[in-house]
From TrEMBL:
Domain Pirin N-terminal, first and last residues per copy: 54-154
Protein's organism: Cryptococcus gattii serotype B (strain WM276 / ATCC MYA-4071)
GO molecular function per UniProt: metal ion binding
Cofactor binding note from Swiss-Prot or TrEMBL: Binds 1 Fe cation per subunit.
Cofactor (UniProt): Fe cation
PANTHER family linked to this entry: PIRIN, PIRIN-RELATED
Record flagged with keyword Iron: yes
The family this protein is said to belong to: Belongs to the pirin family.
Residue ranges of every copy of the Pirin C-terminal domain listed in the record: 215-320
Protein name, per record: Pirin
């Protein structure tokens, strides 16, 4: 998706404080231990994005500029007449996870694909990609349902900023889904949960887990790598985290603590939440990157010079953007007039 243009600088010294007690070894998936707690809650307000679309953004706002390695999180629900036409990326990954409807993708390398409910696309832009992402609707307006899902932007380690673009697309039936106890469903996109590993192996090793707690009062402990930055985003329903009795509502992003000895997080659907709506949320974690973040819209680099180079490379068709010259996607042709 397209992001409004701005440049921001984050010094390495600030990022270093996020690395305290970091361990790259994942906690064992069957053990329980001290739970992380919530350090910050951010409500995802609606913002305009792409061409006529509205998304709920949490990371990438004034309240939470970034949470290294995570740059942006959008919860989209797109109606007919809107979409995300041709735009570029460099130095980052995008993860698109679809809940409802149909979503098409096309890029300047000739790659195209279609996402349906439960599918995920993990795209590594690397040195450069230009693409379009467009929802597909039933031609009968009475049958046209909104297209809903999430898109996450993840920073690439500095050494991987200029790797070749790649995709890891997974259909819903190829993504592991486990039920560690009655009333708990976990979709393992990447990382590990209760002895099951995800089918996606992302650059940088981020964890992405989908949860559905289907019964009031049901609780589950999810191990996480110590020192990884982690957050929860609630898609619908209510959720309690750790030992806190407070119930958090949908559209809230909850940043988790990173204290020594916290090997995971306890997740509970409130016992008094007896409605029909299950608690649906994602838990996402990643290793903090000790590097500057310089972002100009869809270009994510480590210096202002590199950001300016990315703009020039895209405009002149160089250094990874050669195929961008004159390229126009087929799926977004109706948005070009």
């Amino acid at each position: 998706m397209i992001k409004p243009a701005f440049i921001r600088f984050t010094s390495p010294s600030i990022l270093t404080t996020l690395k305290a007690n970091m361990s790259t070894t994942a906690a064992t998936s069957t053990a329980t231990g001290a739970s992380r707690s919530i350090t910050k809650s951010v409500y995802a307000h609606e913002v305009s994005e792409g061409a006529g679309a509205t998304v709920r953004r949490s990371i990438g706002t004034r309240e939470l500029r970034n949470l290294t390695p995570f740059l942006m999180l959008d919860h989209f629900r797109v109606l007919p007449g809107a979409g995300f036409p041709d735009h570029p990326h460099r130095g980052m990954q995008t993860v698109t996870y679809l809940f409802q409807g149909t979503f098409k993708h096309e890029d300047f390398l000739g790659y195209s694909g279609t996402l349906t409910p439960g599918d995920v696309q993990w795209m590594t832009a690397g040195r450069g990609i230009a693409h379009a992402e467009m929802p597909i609707f039933d031609p009968d307006p009475a049958k046209a349902e909104p297209v809903e899902g999430m898109q996450l932007w993840i920073d690439l380690p500095q050494k991987d900023k200029y790797i070749e673009p790649e995709y890891q697309d997974r259909k819903a039936e190829d993504i592991p889904v486990i039920h560690p106890k009655d009333g708990v469903e976990i979709t393992v996109l990447s990382g590990d949960s209760h002895g099951t590993s995800g089918s996606v192996t992302p650059v940088g090793g981020a964890w992405y887990l989908g949860f559905k707690l289907q019964k009031p009062g049901v609780s589950v402990y999810q191990p996480l790598p110590e020192g990884y930055n982690a957050f929860i985003y609630i898609v619908k329903g209510k959720l309690q985290v750790g030992d806190d009795a407070k119930a958090h509502d949908k559209f809230n992003l909850l940043v988790l603590s990173t204290k020594p000895g916290e090997s995971g997080v306890t997740l509970t659907r409130p016992a008094d939440d007896t409605g029909a709506e299950e608690a649906h949320f994602v838990v996402i974690a990643g290793k903090p990157l000790d590097q500057p973040i310089v972002q100009y819209g869809p270009f994510v680099t480590c210096s202002q010079r590199q950001a300016m180079e990315a703009i020039m490379d895209y405009q002149t068709g160089k250094n990874g953007f050669e195929r961008a010259v004159g390229w126009k996607s087929k799926i977004a042709k109706d948005f070009r007039g």
